[in-house]
Amino acid sequence: MPAKLLDGNLLAKKMRTEIAANAIILAAKGTKPGLAVILVGENPASQIYVRNKIKACQDTNIHSVLIQLPQNTSQAELLVQITKLNQDPQIHGILVQLPLPSHIDSHSVIEAIHPKKDVDGFHVANAGALMTGKPLFKPCTPYGCMALIESTDYPIRGARAVIIGASNIVGKPMAMLLLQAGATVTICNSKTRDLSFHSKEADILVVATGKPKMVSAQMVKPGAIVIDVGINRLPDGKLCGDVDFDEVKYVANWITPVPGGVGPMTITMLLQNTLEAAQHLHVRN
Ligand code: NDP
Fold first, then answer.
1. What confidence tens digit (pLDDT) does each residue in 244-285 have?
2. Contact criterion met (CB below 8 Å) for 58 and 64
């Protein structure tokens, strides 16, 4: 029997309704949540991502500001913008759309964002706090994956979780969140020997490699939850994940589609983090 679909659009819609309601409540108390998005250059994919984020803010009663800067913006000019936003009381979250042009050091830019406005959760202060189990903000993509996994009601505590991919923005924070939820976690990378040996052990398998359809049915434990983070464009223009969905759906118990799985959840958790940033500030004031 094919796996049950973990529908990110459906869960995102439900969560965004709650976020929109909470944003209204907070605004009525005097704090309207605000997100600033900075886009440098004209990368077409980044333009689409940024447009979607601004639209999602509009749909959830979150004030948004889009700062579009030309490709030749210097690092110093970008840092000036971030300093202004760090001091702006109407802005609770700051997101710099990556990748940045190659003449700008992304690390320095992310570190310039105030950790209390780092709604992407990429600042080392937040990454370090995640390690100790007390992050101000969880990185949006792993946070969204956790929401999808939790929606299955499968007990994470005691489960064997395997993550294929070890990037700072997906694989590593995903491992921390699953570990903190009580799973026994293995993280695999491109040097892992006998990947299938590990992946076949997984009750929960999260794949974030950027390698189209690399996870086949033979690599998946029957009945597993499979979360496919990958977004790859095929030569025919269609999108696919890092999991061979058409095969793996006959082995897994739950599986995310691409598109319509993790993608909508990533933006939803950005909205959630922005709301939480505004709530923290409201409590402090
Ligand atoms: P990175 O390129 O930063 O990291 C990829 C990771 O996968 C690395 O750790 C790499 O290993 C590992 N890897 C690559 N090939 C293999 C292999 N054959 N076997 C095992 N491990 C492998 O990618 P990201 O984490 O940034 O993104 C991964 C995918 O997720 C991409 O498709 C990206 O577009 C998508 N993505 C989707 C998001 C969403 O919202 N849905 C958000 C963010 C990313 P090593 O460390 O050894 O190099």
1. 999 999 999 999 999 999 999 999 999 999 999 999 887 776
2. yes
Number of Cβ atoms within 10 Å of the Cβ of 31 = 19
In 3D, which of 259, 261, 185, 246 has the Cα closest to residue 216? 246
Q: Residue 97: which residues within 8 A CB-CB, separation 6 or more?
A: 37, 38, 39, 40, 46, 49, 50
- Choosing from 50, 170, 243 the residue with most ligand 1 atoms within 8 A of its CB, the one to mutate for a pocket test is 170
* Count, residues in the chain: 285
Ligand 1 residue neighbourhood (C-beta within 6 Å): 141, 164-167, 169-171, 188-192, 195, 208-211, 214, 229-232, 262-263, 266
pLDDT in tens, 147-198: 999 999 999 999 999 999 999 999 999 999 999 999 999 999 999 999 999 9
**What is the C-alpha to C-alpha distance for residues 209 and 194, in angstroms, rounded to an integer?**
16
Strands (E), the chain: 4-5, 34-40, 63-69, 93-96, 160-164, 184-188, 204-207, 225-228, 232-233, 239-240, 254-255
Q: Is 211 a catalytic residue?
A: no
Rounded CA gap, 195 and 134, in Å? 31
Question: Which domains can be identified in the chain, with CATH numbers?
Answer: 31-117 (3.40.50.10860), 140-262 (3.40.50.720)
pTM of this prediction? 0.97
Cβ pair 230, 211 in contact under 8 A? yes
- List residues bridging with 163 in a β-sheet: 187, 206
